[in-house]
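Possible regression after last week's pipeline update?

I re-ran a chain I had predicted before the update to compare outputs. Posting the input and the new output here so someone can diff against the archived version. Not blocking, just want to make sure nothing changed silently.
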Amino acid sequence: MKNNRFSNKEKGISRRDFLKYSGATVGASMLLGPAARVFGQADKKRISIATGGMGGVYFVLGGGIANVLTKYAGVEAAAEVTAASVDNCKLVGAQKSDLAFSMGDVGYDAFKGQGNFKSPLPLRMVCALYGNLMHLVTVDGKGITKVADLKGKRVSTGAPGSGTEVKAFRVLETAGINHNEDIKKDRLGAAESAGALKDGKIDAFFWDGGVPTAAVLDLASSPGIKAVLVSHGDLVPGMVQKYGPVYYPAVIPKKVYTGIEYDTSVAAVSNVLLCHADMDETQAYNIVKAVLEHLNELAAIHKEALNINLQAAAANKAIPYHKGAAKYFKEKGLSVPL
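New output (post-update):
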């Protein structure tokens, strides 16, 4: 799908009209039909989950969460294709989506009203999820072995309004590269970036997401393509110094992607699930309970769910938790900031 960026504000499309991507392959709920209404599901509250592009983990896992919430949280949930973190925070802040996936750094910027956000947004934590690992992807023969080698190259820095774009700019800046002057910049999502690299239209792309990411898997397994992941974990201290302790070093293990026989040191950030501060307390409680008590079902959709656990879900200290979520964690003996 080309350019999946959600722009209902500009086009006048209502949030409910945009609930169109739950997807049988990821098990999310479809819009109600006559048969469902026979069984009383027409009375369920519909909620939307702002996720990301179809080539990324957010959309796949978001579909799984939609399915879990529909089964266990007393709602009818569906996943939305969006441009990811930045737009997701704005959608929830404007109450055009009910839940949002976001990178922790973008969520913090939105809550504080800094960076891409002109004023603070009334966001609250539902739970922390898994870690997002920055992929800097190229192919053999491009002469790119470190971030500094991107100077003069055509590079996709992520979809406009995405957390990938925010973090890519920070990686480039820390490496001494001006993203407006030193590279030829494209702004594509994961699937589009992988396709453009495969077709020789770009030299490299950034993607910040879970491991493995479907679009990178597809690229690496394509005949005649030798994918390369570029290490940049050495830049993390500089990123932390300027942007705060939201980043940490991590490793994309060898052999996760076909033909990549080495560990790749990268910059990582936690992903979070956010809601509006005004969400009903019981609903927020039911949502976090359904997610954290059915991780086995989510892991069957995407194995990144194996990296979600109760303690880590309550570990975020940058953004206050919703009262309903805090109630659930308190029942489990955990304290979270309000």
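Follow-up from reviewer: compared with the archived run. The chain has a mean pLDDT of 88. Marking as no regression found.
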